[in-house]
Design goal:
By secondary structure, this protein is α+β, with helices and mostly antiparallel strands. It has 2 domains: 128 residues, Impact, N-terminal domain (Ribosomal Protein S5, domain 2, 2-Layer Sandwich); 70 residues, 2-Layer Sandwich (Alpha-Beta Plaits). The strands form 3 sheets. Strands 2-3-6-4-5 form a 5-stranded antiparallel sheet, sandwiched between helices. Strands 9-10-8-11 form a 4-stranded antiparallel sheet. It has a two-stranded antiparallel ribbon with strand order 1-7. Strand 2 and strand 3 form a beta hairpin.
């Protein structure tokens, strides 16, 4: 897999059914640690809601995900939301659907439809983007050869993850997996540059 699909913008959308309001919030999410912060923000934004149901998926292996019905009947909220994330092949996304209860019970089919519909609506509000799977490398070099390195980084659309530029420089970059051999060949031609794989596969 050389590419993955994600979003880089936030979005909100609303679905109504028999008095209940279902407000979906779409959030780019790159780590489980950020999840609590995002949920706290949503709860402050919608403080009187009756439910905060959600699903998220992070990373490329498909194993880092979480779903919650948040008090709704089992399988009626988190699972339909996550189903949309899966069907769109998205990762690094969080969808929270906030419910304001309108007084009428919707039943299991009605809840599934409402949570799925709200999540589908919010996914229409922001563009889904295709991003390259990257391999991370750590570079160490003298400042005098910075220009040659930057030319290669820009030419092959490598991402800059961290950099410290002094007389002696360090840099962590993400190299698109499908251009890895070419980029490493070009970088290795630069005298005085030390290249080592950095931990983890970048997304």
């Amino acid at each position: 897999m050389d590419y993955y699909y994600t979003v880089e913008q936030r979005g909100t959308a609303e679905f109504k059914d028999r008095g209940s309001r279902f407000i979906a919030c779409l959030v780019p999410l790159t780590s489980p640690e950020d999840f609590k912060k995002e949920m706290d923000l949503i709860k402050k934004t919608f403080p009187k809601a009756t439910h905060y149901c959600f699903a998220y998926r992070i990373g490329l292996d498909g194993n880092t995900y979480r779903i919650s019905d948040a008090g709704e009947p089992s399988g009626t909220a988190g699972k339909p939301i996550f189903g949309l994330i899966e069907s769109r092949q998205l990762t690094n996304v969080l969808i929270v659907v906030v419910r304001y209860f309108g007084g009428s019970l919707l039943g299991v089919p009605g809840l599934i439809n409402a949570y799925r519909s709200a999540a589908a609506l919010v996914l229409q509000t922001v563009p889904v983007i295709q991003k390259p799977v990257e391999r991370r490398y750590f570079l160490q070099f003298d400042y005098t050869i910075l220009n040659g390195i930057m030319i290669i980084i820009k030419q092959y659309n490598c991402s800059m993850i961290e950099q410290e530029l002094q007389l002696f420089c360090t840099m962590t970059i993400g190299i698109p997996q499908n251009r890895l051999a070419e980029v490493l060949f070009k970088l290795e031609e630069i005298r005085g540059l030390e290249i080592n794989p950095a931990s983890g596969k970048g997304v």
